[in-house]
Amino acid sequence: MSALTAHNLTKIIGERTIVDDVSFELRPGEVFGFLGPNGAGKTTTIRMLVGLIRPTRGTVSVCGYDIRHQFEDAMRCIGCIVENPDLYRFMTGRENLEHFARMLGVSHEEIERVAELVNLSHRLDQRVGTYSLGMRQRLGIAQAMLGNPRVLILDEPANGLDPAGIREIRELLRTLAAERGMAVFVSSHLLAEIELTADRVAIIHKGRILRTGPVRDLISNQKMMELRVGDVERTGQIVRERGLEPVINDDLVLAPIDESEMPPLIAALASANIDIFHARARVQTLEEMFLDVTGGETVD
User: Fold this and answer.
1) What is the CATH number of the domain that holds 148?
2) At what angle do helices 93-104 and 108-117 cross, to 10 degrees?
3) How far is it, in rounded angstroms, from Cα 7 to Cα 120?
4) Are 169 and 120 within 8 A, CB to CB?
5) What integer pLDDT is reported at residue 295 of this predicted model?
6) Of 117, 177, 192, 285, which has the most beta carbons under 10 Å away?
């Protein structure tokens, strides 16, 4: 059974369609990346997933519960941070977690469990105002995990963190998915980080899902060979003679062919006395694929 399913989600405000017929599913034990340019509809989609706003059309089910008709049962399955963690800085980390634990009716042992998961046990009795940004993010994730939800929804969990903090969050999310079977939904503008973290991604643009699937599949669809050569102009000409359109960048020539088609091309370059310093398959990055499908628009 899917941990969360969004089916034909649509949100219309006035005459503007913010989210248009969006569908995807989250599976237990995976990290799902949700990517899109500024104004694409990411936050609106998240707010519909957690019941903060009602969709104009479409449905959301969490652990088999329809969010509209079985709201409380569905919400018991979800832990979430929408935008910034809602924390009281004048209180300690423990007091923050105790406050939310009382609302959820969970035990003191649950506080210790989530604090250990996010590696904050040693700072739990210090005021949140003394925490670094990364620590506050981890405390927010601990708060979202109170009650042991099956689905964790995070909006920009690594926003503003330094490289060490980003890696810490990545390792935490991978652990929650792989070792605890949690379905983790992450909205993020850090494309390289999502490529390292997520199992699958969905790209939303102007309110519509343009592409969704496993990260490996999405970034390996484009066949491209990279050649570092001594004469890029002559190499480009030889590539064009084979009916292909190369991309030339300094001393690199990118040829849109499969690796199995390289030997004849290399032989042709050698016959033309062109120095070949390396030839290798070039895997498209998630960022390159994202820019391709969104027409070059950057994420927010």
Assistant:
1) 3.40.50.300
2) 130
3) 37
4) no
5) 67
6) 177
Residue 27 belongs to what H/E stretch?
A: none
CATH number at residue 244: 3.30.70
Residues 23, 7: contact at Cβ < 8 Å? yes
Structure tokens of 159? 């926003």
Q: Do 246 and 127 share a structural domain?
A: no
How many domains is the chain partitioned into structurally?
A: 2
Cα separation, 66 vs 60, in Å, equals: 6
Query: Which secondary structure element, helix H or strand E, spans residue 145, and what is its range?
Result: helix 133-145
The answer to whether 107 and 131 are in contact (CB under 8 A) is no
Query: CB atoms < 10 A from the CB of 215, how many?
Result: 19
Query: Domain residues for 241?
Result: 225-283
Which residues share a beta bridge with 253? 227, 248
pTM summary value:
0.78
Q: Are residues 106 and 232 in the same domain?
A: no
| CA–CA gap between residue 188 and residue 153 (Å, rounded) | 11
**What does the block give as tokens for 84?**
């910034």
Sheet containing 4-13: order of strands: 16-26, 4-13, 57-62, 65-66
pLDDT tens by residue, 115-173: 988 888 999 999 999 998 888 888 988 998 888 899 999 988 877 778 888 888 888 89
100 and 81 housed in the same domain: yes
List pLDDT tens digits, range 207-231: 999 888 888 777 765 567 888 888 8
